[in-house]
Specification:
Blueprint lengths: L13 E2 L5 H22 L5 H17 L3 E2 L8 H12 L4 H8 L3 H4 L4 H8 L1 H10 L10 H18 L2 H15 L9 H18 L3 H15 L1 H17 L1 H17 L5 E6 L2 H11 L10 E7 L2 H14 L1 E2 L5 E2 L12 E6 L5 E8 H9 L3 H7 L9 H12 L3 H10 L5 E5 L5 E5 L4 H8 L1 H5 L1 E6 L2 E3 L11 E5 L16 H33 L13 H11 L4 H10 L4 H14 L6 H8 L11 E3 L7 E3 L11 E6 L3 E6 L3 H9 L4 E2 L1 E3 L8 E10 L4 H11 L3 E7 L7 E10 L2 H12 L4 E6 L5
Parallel strand pairs: 4-8, 14-19, 15-17
Antiparallel strand pairs: 1-2, 3-4, 5-7, 6-7, 7-8, 9-10, 11-12, 11-13, 16-17, 16-18, 20-22, 20-23, 21-22
Helix pairs in contact: 1-3, 2-4, 3-4, 3-9, 4-7, 4-9, 6-7, 7-8, 7-9, 8-18, 8-19, 9-11, 10-11, 11-12, 18-22, 19-22, 20-22, 22-24, 22-25, 23-25
Length: about 750
């Protein structure tokens, strides 16, 4: 099973061939056995049969990694053993520990998933497979490879959380030993850890792992700054030792007097958190006052609040520095009371107050699931984020897009808002009303039209604050707006909106493509698109092969989007039918090719204002019902409708007439609203803009946008409006109303003409 050398991003096994290889292998075997013996002390919580399974996995992994070495020169098997030991601290079950021992076997040793399933069962094989990168697949870029690998890992994590726990243990040990690796790899691996793995640990409540990964990344990304801060912190620790001891003694004495049992421990902010605070607030190290703090563990939740009262009597609290994460837990399950007090010598000291159960969750997060089981407790963690990964995957096919959506949710700096029925919702800081709507349900988000925040009307893009009570107003006829993608903050909302828009565009483009292909086939003498029944399967297969489309639906969609020319596809259909002995319908052919100039074809595209994804109204001329129009099938842009007098339309007609498509306005199209551009030149007088707006309102015209030049000192100025009107008559009525205003010099429609 010896594996050849292959490149790994975090730790590369090396196959060495030296004269003393047998001696090295003998030493490696002794080292492996010694490390495993140490690990046995940490897995004593497993039943005997579980320990036996772990022993079998170690033997298998030890053999698989024979003659593989770490950059430090240690046998490679010491790494899986170290990873398993970290997992054992979280009291993971035997299957997880076995997968931790075998986590590199598939990637580096040529062992297959089927091999592992046959030896250790499908659960262990699935865990190891979820941890295995996609190095053997071909990707165009390293970023694409990384995105697909992370998608695989995160989806495996959503189905089984043990996958990410093993991966975090793996990354933690690699970061601890990264000093043995080439410095050229430090920056990339440390950045990846800081940007991806540390936030995932935080998101899952693994506070201890999160803090360690941050500090180790900082140490290897900014070694000089890390060393400088470490020296400063060491000096500060020595100066404030007496202060910390005095505070601890005073607290112990007070609680002894009250006969309240507590466990108090000092805590110190990590170097990375101190460094980030210095950067954010432009502080020197001496100006960072809350480096030190205390954690107080008490028996019950009631004792937490009692302890808070005692501390506030002993020391003066800092205003605005109290947070109750017990009543409103963080989204990763974290619970504690936080308060900052002014201690002796005016030094600010933070206190965290929690019960023992809260402390387990605070330090181990999602891993507390197994710790609770070991102690007979219950799993009370909020794991909605894991389910949201599956939701995002359902809506997203592209790996890079999936990863972009997930990264949005990796930083759980949460706010807490309420539904009208007082249900608490944890949202990402900066989340908007539309994010809240999608957090409730996809249909609420899709049909949201407005909202009320604390009883007051608010727009969908309003940013929420903790404590807001949010009510969403929906309309069954409303649909997601592409503009929403510009301000939503959560990955769930972003993926839901994108998927809806893609689905809608696909459906509408397919309908348009069917219309265009029908028209093109009629011009070839074929009355309708051949059905997809068994008799025509060979015909469709040949046409789809020529068009490089996977299915009939894909072909019609490509035609509707402009990726395929309907005439080209129609000619291929005709060629195949002719080869089968069929002939075009002569009567239909003559009707289509020699009809009068004014005749509208049976397959003309009808413009009714509803097919916004497949049909777009050109922003250069903004046609409205009643205008003479022409349509151009752009390559990948769908159908673009222009005013017939638009200079851009005339240029397209002259240069690319084959892509022009016949269109006509629907008879009842005046029930919809269409945008049109209007230019109004006015005498620059007080109140003239209000008069113009009033006349437009009286004409029942909505103002979508207004632009004006900075011409305050000029006697006349130009106003440029985007107005929403029903049709050409409605627009003309509005222009006549504007021209009646004495201060209006001229009012005309904006239409690019030669």
């Amino acid at each position: 099973m010896n594996a050849a050398f292959n490149s790994k991003s975090d730790d590369t096994p090396r196959t060495l061939s030296e004269p003393t290889l047998d001696e090295r292998l003998e030493i490696a075997a002794r080292v492996s056995a010694a490390h495993f013996e140490v690990m046995l002390d940490h897995i004593a919580y497993l039943p005997p049969e579980g320990q036996n399974l772990v022993h079998q996995a170690w033997q298998y992994a030890d053999k698989a990694h024979t003659n593989q070495w770490r950059s430090s020169g240690d046998p490679y098997i010491t790494h899986p053993i170290a990873v398993t030991t970290i997992c054992a601290h979280w009291k993971l079950d035997a299957s997880a520990l076995m997968a931790a021992l075998l986590h590199d076997a598939m990637e580096d040793c040529g062992i297959t998933k089927q091999d592992l399933a046959a030896k250790f069962g499908p659960v262990v094989a699935d865990l190891v497979d979820g941890l295995t990168k996609l190095d053997k697949l071909h990707f165009n870029t390293r970023e694409e490879n990384q995105a697909e690998s992370f998608r695989k890992m995160l989806l495996a994590m959503a189905k089984d959380i043990r996958v990410i726990l093993i991966k975090l243990a793996d990354r933690t040990h690699n970061m601890r030993t990264m000093g043995d690796m080439p410095r050229s790899k430090w920056g990339r691996i440390a950045s990846e850890t800081l940007e991806i793995y540390a936030p995932i640990a935080h998101r899952l409540g693994l506070n201890q792992t999160y803090r360690e990964l941050q500090d180790l990344s900082f140490r290897h990304l900014r070694p000089w700054r890390y060393e400088t801060l470490q020296k400063a912190l060491t000096k500060s620790r020595a100066r404030r030792r007496d202060l910390v001891q005095r505070v601890q003694q005073d607290i112990d004495a007070e609680f002894d007097r009250l006969s309240m049992p507590i466990r108090i421990a000092g805590r110190e902010n990590t170097l990375y958190s101190v460094y980030q605070k210095m950067l954010r607030h432009h502080l020197s190290f001496a100006q960072v006052t809350d480096i030190y703090g205390f954690r107080i563990i008490v028996p019950t939740t009631t004792d937490c609040y009692t302890t808070l009262g005692v501390l506030h009597q002993m020391y003066k609290p800092v205003p605005g520095k109290f947070k109750d994460h017990i009543a409103i837990a963080k989204s990763n399950g974290y619970q504690s009371l936080h308060t900052t007090l002014v201690g002796p010598s005016g030094v600010s000291i933070e206190f965290q107050i929690r019960t023992e159960a809260m402390h387990i969750v605070a330090e181990a997060g999602i891993a507390a699931h197994w710790l609770y089981k070991a102690q007979g407790g219950q799993d009370t963690l909020n794991t909605k984020w894991l389910q949201s990964l599956l939701d995002i995957q359902t809506e997203t096919n592209d790996a890079t897009e999936f990863w972009d959506n997930v990264k949005v949710d990796l930083f759980p700096d949460s706010i807490y808002v309420f539904t009208p029925k007082s249900k608490i919702m944890a949202m990402t800081r900066g989340a908007t009303v539309i994010d809240f709507a999608y957090a409730i349900h996809s249909n609420v988000g899709h049909h949201a039209v407005s909202s009320f925040i604390n009883g007051e009307p608010a727009s969908l893009r309003t940013e929420l604050k903790s404590g807001d009570v949010v009510q969403i107003v929906t309309d069954e006829n409303a649909n997601p707006n592409p503009v929403w993608l510009g301000f939503v903050k959560t990955g769930r909302a972003r993926s839901k909106i994108r998927n809806y828009l893609k689905t809608a565009a696909h459906s509408e483009s397919m309908v348009l493509g069917e219309t265009l292909l029908t028209q093109a086939l009629r011009e070839e003498g074929i009355a309708a698109i051949p059905d997809n029944e068994e008799a025509n399967q060979a015909l469709w297969a040949e046409v789809l092969l020529k068009a490089k489309s996977k299915s009939r639906e894909d072909l019609l969609t490509d035609i509707g989007m402009g990726h395929q020319a309907a005439g080209w596809v129609a000619r291929h259909f005709m060629a195949q039918l002719v080869s089968q002995g069929q002939r075009p319908n002569a009567v239909l052919l003559s009707q289509e090719r020699f009809s009068s100039a004014g005749k509208i074809s049976q397959s003309t595209v009808v413009l009714d204002g509803s097919n916004n994804s497949s049909v777009r109204y050109a922003p250069c001329c903004r046609p409205v019902p009643g205008d003479p129009v022409m349509a151009y099938l752009g390559r990948g842009d769908g159908l673009q409708v222009h005013h017939a007098q638009c200079v851009n339309a005339k240029r397209l007609q002259a240069t690319d007439s084959e892509r022009l498509v016949p269109v006509e306005w629907a008879e009842d199209g005046n029930q919809k609203l269409y945008d049109s551009g209007v230019s109004v030149t006015i005498h620059n007088q007080k109140g003239v803009l209000a008069r113009v707006a009033t006349e437009l309102s009286n004409a029942n015209v909505d103002i979508r946008r207004l632009e004006m030049d900075d011409e305050a000192a000029m006697q006349t100025m130009e106003l440029r409006f985007i107005l929403s009107v029903h049709d050409q008559q409605h627009l003309e009525a509005a222009l006549r109303a504007l021209r009646r205003i004495t201060t209006v010099v001229r009012a005309n429609r904006i239409l690019p003409t030669e």
